[in-house]
């Protein structure tokens, strides 16, 4: 049996509330729509949110159980209806006390060869916990809002990651309105000196998806936010994203393309 090559991507941010967990989950689901085998791991051990976002706040085996040596890390993986695999954390107060990030970093090695992509939802800011997981990842995606405080904190995160030798795959700008108040993506790139690889527009369907306890890419696949995440996934894979040809061009044009006549 040929072992899969596993790519470890950490989703991080300089501050909380910018859409880091939403990005981790929806990037994961978007990558599965491209046929990739993806697992999202909740690496925010003090305030885990992945399970909450997906309607599984309490699970039989969590990543905290794995850290305590009660279970293996593969036993903590669950399958979402979208095809995305997730390893959620525990919200029990006793589990949230002084979690061992170094143990989690070592346990990530057990996922090598089990899936194509592991997306780690990191805790925000530059605490010891986030820095420990940064060292375990092959690359980092930094999430920010198009506002000066968030961009400034993103810059600090980038500089720290680079100091630790973690490659920055790029920046994702969330909640983008495109008005004269937002910092535009070109200026974000100039400030951070990193490419903006994803732009997620302000979209109420994200809030609706959270209420439905699904990724927006699953519950509202044609929404502007979903398309933004699919374009981000395509960018990471080096592929071109095209919206549904049948919906865009009509049945006749679609069939011409299918048969290579257009």
Protein model, in words:
There is one protein chain. The chain is α/β, with parallel strands linked by helices and 262 residues long. It has one domain: P-loop containing nucleotide triphosphate hydrolases (Rossmann fold, 3-Layer(aba) Sandwich), CATH 3.40.50.300. The chain is 39% helix and 17% strand. It has an eight-stranded mixed beta sheet with strand order 3-4-2-5-1-6-7-8, with helices on both faces. Helix 1 packs across helix 10 and helix 4 runs parallel beside helix 5. The longest helix has 16 residues. The C terminus is likely disordered.
Number of domains: 1
Task: Write down how many β-strands occur, each being a DSSP E stretch of 2 or more residues.
Answer: 8
The proportion of strand residues reads 15-25%
Please write the CATH class name. Alpha Beta
Regions with little confidence, pLDDT below 50 for 5+ residues: 245-262
Q: Quick check: average pLDDT?
A: 89
Helix- and strand-based class?
A: alpha/beta
Number of helices: 12
Give the N-terminus to C-terminus distance in angstroms: 41 Å
Largest sheet: 8 strands, mixed
The CATH superfamily label reads: P-loop containing nucleotide triphosphate hydrolases
Query: Rough shape?
Result: globular
- The side-by-side strand order for the widest beta sheet comes to 3-4-2-5-1-6-7-8
H/E series, N to C? Answer: EHEHHEEHEHEHEHEHHHHH
The appropriate CATH architecture is 3-Layer(aba) Sandwich
- Reported by name, the CATH topology is Rossmann fold
